Amino acid sequence: MTTTKNILVTLTLAIGLASPAMALSIQGGSVDVGALDTVVGVRTGRMSSSPASETAWVSSILGAGYSVNANISGANILNRTDAPGAPSYAFNLQGLGTPPASIEYVLVKNGTTMLLLQNDGSTDWAAFNWADSVQIGSRQVAYDLNGRGSNRGQRSISHFALVSGPTLVVDPPPFFAPQELPQGEPVNVPEPATLGLMGLGLLTAGLRRKRKAG
Questions:
Q1: pLDDT band at residue 97 using 50, 70 and 90 as cut-offs
Q2: Bridge partner list, 24
Q3: What is the pTM of this model?
Q4: Residue 119 CB burial class (10 angstroms; 0-12, 13-18, ≥19)
Q5: Do residues 127 and 121 lie in contact, with contact meaning Cβ atoms separated by under 8 Å?
Q6: What is the number of other CB atoms lying within 10 angstroms of the CB of residue 157?
Q7: Which residue, among 22, 6, 18, has the nearest Cα to 129 in the 3D structure?
């Protein structure tokens, strides 16, 4: 009996560990926004909001060839998820002019914190915890997106930005379909020797006419 209980406990733990990350929802569970996206970069402190400085920071994490673009004002488009406990939020990536499935990373910024999210929870939504401590490489990094004073909470978000990667787009060469020839009777093409004999015959006939005329 004890052995059976131990087996059941082991199976339960294994299933729990193997289960995917918890799915999040908004609007009372009516909209599924997927799981939390992976935080791959955190920057804290006073910083510039220019696309050039943001691109430089992103490139220091992901490598050369990435750029930050399509800045979107953040405070009024955040959706708090229905998950209990510490607040988490979701940002809709649909309808931004870029297919969500092609958005690899999303940048979240307020006055003193920048997050770089990998869009791996749900391609249609960027989902993240408002404050957290995350493992990045060998370091444990804490962040808190709350601002100060009247800018605390959602209003503290400055903007979101889509991060485009070094995708090489190669147009396929133009394809020309072989032109179909109309079906008809086969045409016999004279061989070179035959053409030579015909030419000689015409030349001989021309010389004879010339002599008769003379």
A1: confident
A2: 34
A3: 0.65
A4: buried
A5: yes
A6: 24
A7: 22
| Rounded CA separation 59/65 (Å) | 7
pLDDT in tens, 101-137: 888 999 998 888 999 999 998 889 999 999 999 998 8
CB contact at 8 A, 160 and 93 = no
Q: For residues 144 and 86, is the Cβ–Cβ distance under 8 A? A: no
**Which sign does the torsion angle of CA 191, 193, 196, 202 carry?**
negative
Among 94, 81, 83, 82, CA closest to 162: 94
Tokens representing 135? 């493992």
38 membership: H or E segment, kind and range: strand 38-44
Distance CA 129, CA 39 (A): 10
What pLDDT does residue 172 have? Answer: 39
Q: What is the dihedral of CA 30, 34, 37, 38, to 10 degrees?
A: 140
- Which pLDDT score is estimated for 19? 37
Q: In whole angstroms, how far apart are CA 201 and each of 44, 191, 197, 207?
A: 98, 16, 6, 10
Q: Mean per-residue pLDDT for 25-36?
A: 92
Check residues 175 and 212 and name the one with the higher pLDDT.
212
For tokens 């800018």, the residue is: 151
- State the first-to-last Cα distance of the chain, in angstroms, to the nearest integer: 132
